[in-house]
């Protein structure tokens, strides 16, 4: 059970890596676009995160306040990705504040995961 949980954590981290990595590629190349890989990363992190939010394969209590905050941040990132993709289709670009918020909120959720125990 514990090993299975570690595998789901790995999948969760792959989702995070895809979302943040896809965003970083856009930022470094100064394209500032919302890409399909960001949506896939968020979806993978969300599904694995929800599976991990259930208390199985562990002997300690989960911090549900922290998980609730992470879920709210994840929904906010999803909304930004959706709005960004729609704006991109219509205008050909994403507002800079929206683009930077996607990276900042992704990093915030990783920070919450690691720092808030
Ligand atoms: C973009 C959104 C998210 C990002 C970037 C993210 C990032 C991370 C990272 C980096 C870790 C590893 C930290 C560690 O080793 O303890 C982690 C763990 C975890 N995440 Fe997320 N997360 C996200 C969304 C969520 C959501 C929505 C949930 C559930 C509501 C969730 C539940 C968990 C749980 C339960 C763990 C701990 C795994 C364990 O030690 O058993 N995450 N997350």
Automatic annotation (TrEMBL):
Keywords: Membrane, Transmembrane, Transmembrane helix. The chain crosses the membrane at residues 6-25, 37-58, 64-85, 97-116. This is Fe-S protein.
């Amino acid at each position: 059970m514990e090993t299975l949980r570690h595998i789901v954590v790995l999948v969760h981290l792959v989702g995070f890596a895809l979302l943040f990595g896809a965003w970083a590629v856009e930022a470094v190349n100064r394209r500032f676009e919302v890409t399909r890989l960001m949506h896939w990363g968020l979806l993978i992190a969300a599904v694995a995160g929800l599976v991990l939010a259930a208390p199985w394969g562990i002997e300690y209590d989960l911090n549900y306040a922290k998980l609730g905050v992470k879920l709210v941040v994840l929904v906010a990132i999803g909304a930004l990705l959706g709005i960004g993709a729609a704006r991109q289709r219509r205008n050909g670009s994403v507002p800079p504040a929206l683009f930077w918020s996607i990276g900042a909120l992704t990093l915030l959720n990783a920070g919450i995961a690691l720092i808030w125990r």
